[in-house]
Amino acid sequence: MSLFRTLFVSLAVVLMGCSASSDDSGTEDPPDTGFIEVAGDDAGTQDAGTQDAGPPDAGGGPTDSLAGLTRIASAEYQLFYLVNGRVLGIGSNRAGQLGVGHANPYNQVPPVDIALPAELRFKDVAGGGFQSVALDVQGRVWTFGQNLYGQRGDGTTNDYPNRTTTPNNGQPYLILQDSTGATFDNVIAVRSALLFNMALKADGSVWVWGMSGKAIGDTLGIAGDGNREPRNITRPVRVPLPQGVRITSFTTNDSSIFALDDTGKVWAWGGSAAGETLGRGNNPDYARPNSLNIPARVKELAAGGGQWIVALDENGSLWGWGIQGTYLGLGPPQGDWYPVSTPVKLSFPEFGTHKVVHVSASGHVTHVILDDGTLWGWGDSAMGEVGNGVMLDFATYDPPYSWNWDKYQKMVFRPVQVAPGVTFTALHNTAQSFYAYATATDGTIYSWGRNKTGVLGNGVRPTGDVAGRPDSWNVATATPVPAHLLTTGTDTPSK
């Protein structure tokens, strides 16, 4: 059984307890995780990577479609727009992860203001599997959604899905203290993985809470403290980094954490299942942060959900590693997943003399923007995730209307240009999503890929046979969308 299939079957079993009548239930889609930004900032600093949202200074004149929009934060089933300091949510509320004040499962289209105090303004937001996290301008962290493994950060694993009564998962919770009892504040960025959350503080420290174990996948060692025992971390704990190391940005795939320090060095830890994912060869010390050997200063990191990682250095070159090396654009595999255990410099003649200025990764695909503004992608486009019009026809796939999450089902092995003729400035993708967002230089927002819960911002509100038609709402070509400006949704049954 493939790595994907093993993970997703496990997820489906656990999530059956969330909702038998769930809006996004179905055998073909278990949860994911990710990393995003409108301003191209993945962790807190403005130059920290555009995998998340878009240009930090997005917005301007009255005709600017980005006015007020500072971040697009994707997850698998839910997505958030940060507009004028307010958080708007769109997509699934299967476990209360939209934070709309209740945990009734449904698909929200168009986006709505989530149930955070009206007087508050926010500077970051992120979604993971079935949990989400938001950061207010005072540096305080709010959580909502699933709490089976302590993702809420309230000291418990009390989980209340499918409820309108109090308490329920959809009521945002302010994390008041960390695991030592100290006030939890001074946070500058938040991220969310499959089953855990992360925060970056102004002093360069990294904090984590949620599942460290093997209940779903393998997130052992995410606390970075050497502890390899399964546990639920129910309040934020500080990751022990070597003295003097100050982290400036971070990201995650489903199970591991990747961070950049202020010298441009990459650090990785967690997720013991595959040593190659951490880029340290056979180094068994996955439960503590280790630095990677990349002979250049790195400025952006992109972690793919399928366990590959791409780093962009200050010279515009890409480096990659991971258990699924084929997703690095190395071409057809020379057997199995083509593991790459330590960082290698990637070569793309398709780019000519142009350098890469931004990189992002989603559940199955890597995207880059070059210095001429062109957008390129490669990876498994089974659900249209590359954005160049390629995807599986599930009606004729064997068996029809079924998909086993296996490798190389509609693989684009080498970079292809997406939306020729359009120039782009920002990417907004995470390892948890099977769809993508990008912002063009004229302020137009494009989206493509899986739209199972309406997250593409195109006005489609999926209804009906969600489980039996895995491609019914997918969009295989990068398409302009209203996104945060969307004001209506249309109920759209499966085909």
Protein described:
The protein is built from one helix and 30 strands. It is mainly β and 495 residues long. A four-stranded antiparallel β-sheet has the order 1-2-3-4, with no helix packed on it. Strands 5-6-7-8 form a four-stranded antiparallel β-sheet, with no helix packed on it. The longest helix is centred in the N-terminal third of the chain and has 13 residues, at 3-15. 58% of the residues are buried.
What does this entry show, briefly?
This protein is mostly beta strands and 495 residues long. Helices cover 3% and strands 34% of the residues.
Q: Give the count of helical stretches.
A: 1
* Shape field: globular
Low-confidence regions: 1-63
N- to C-terminal distance:
30 Å
Provide the spatial order of strands within the biggest beta sheet.
1-2-3-4
The percent range for helix content is: under 10%
Strands, count: 30
Question: Average pLDDT value?
Answer: 87
- The computed structural class is mainly beta
Spatial extent as radius of gyration: 20 Å
Fill in the keyword field for this structure:
mainly beta; 495 residues; four-stranded antiparallel beta sheet
Would you spell out the secondary-structure blueprint of this structure?
Layout: H1 3-15, E1 69-74, E2 78-83, E3 86-92, E4 107-113, E5 122-127, E6 131-136, E7 141-145, E8 173-174, E9 187-192, E10 196-201, E11 206-212, E12 231-238, E13 247-252, E14 257-261, E15 266-269, E16 290-291, E17 298-304, E18 308-313, E19 318-322, E20 340-345, E21 356-361, E22 365-370, E23 375-380, E24 411-418, E25 424-427, E26 435-440, E27 445-449, E28 460-463, E29 475-481, E30 490-493
Parallel strand pairs: 28-30
Antiparallel strand pairs: 1-2, 2-3, 3-4, 5-6, 6-7, 7-8, 9-10, 10-11, 11-12, 13-14, 14-15, 15-16, 17-18, 18-19, 19-20, 21-22, 22-23, 23-24, 25-26, 26-27, 27-29
